[in-house]
Write a structure and sequence with these properties.
Layout: H1 3-6, H2 22-28, E1 30-34, E2 41-48, E3 59-63, H3 71-76, E4 79-89, H4 94-98, E5 105-108, H5 114-128, H6 134-155, H7 162-168, H8 170-181, H9 189-196, H10 200-211, H11 215-232, H12 237-244, H13 249-267
Antiparallel strand pairs: 1-4, 2-3, 2-4, 3-5
Helix pairs in contact: 5-6, 6-7, 8-9, 9-10, 11-12, 12-13
Length: about 270
Amino acid sequence: MSLKSASRPAPAVQPAPLDRLSALLAGLSPRVWLSEGSAELGMHIARPSAGSEAARGCWLTVTPRGQKLDTDALHGRGLAPWLSFEVALDGPVGPLFQEQFREPLDIALDEADAALGQITRLIAGEVQTPRCGHPLLMNRAGDILLIGLLRHLVASPRGRMHLFNGLADPRMARALVAIHTHPGFPWSVAALAQEAGMSRTSFAQHFRAVVGMAPVGYLARLRLALAKKRVQDGVGLKQAARETGYAGPSTLSRALHREQAQTQACTQ
C-alpha cells in the first residue's frame, strides 16, 4: 500500500467560539471596587443571616445606578448583606448598558451559572482566610465578578434585558458582536443579516423582536455614543465622524445637536 493511499484527510479545524462580551466590555471600560456606597451600579453578595432558616446559600443582588440596596428586603428573606462592589462605566457604551438594569436583580447563586458561583466562593474564601497576594486578588475580584455576572446573564437572560437577550441568541449575537467590534464599518441591514446567516427581512424582524429596536436604530445609538465620547475627549468632528461611520462632520454635528435638544426637552 502506498503512503498516498494510506494517508487520511486532515481533521477539520473547528471555528473558535464566538466571544460575545470582549467587544462590549471594551466599550464599557468598567472600573470595579469594593464599596459600601451605591452611587454607581452595585453588585452585592448576601449570605444567610446567623440562625436563619429562611434562606439557603448566597445571593447576588444588582442595583441600578444611584439606588441603595434594600437591606430590609434582604432581612425579610433571611439574608444579610456581606460584600458590595460598585461598577463605574467610563466607556461610551455605558448609558446603553445601564438601561439593562432599571430594577434590582436578584440571583440565587446556587442556581446560577456555575462559573458565577465559583467566583463568589473564591471571593468568600479569600475574605475569610486571606492568603499571599490578598490585596491584588481583591483588587481584581470585582472585575472577575462582573464578568461572571455578564456570562450568567448571557446564558440566562431575563425579561426586558434586551441586550442580553440578543447576545443569548446565537444569530443575533453574531450581528451584535460585529457591530460592537467594528461600529464604524458601513453596515447595512443586508450585511448584518449575512453575519447572522439569515435573510434580510427575517433578520430585521427577529432583531427588533429580541433586541427591542431595529438594527439600524441600535447601530445609530452606538455610533452616536462613541462619537460623542470622542468629541468630549478633544477629537475633532472630522476625525470622530470618520472613526464612527458618519458620512462627514456636518452629519455628526447635526446628530449631536439633535441628541442635545432631545435631552434638554426630557429634563424640562
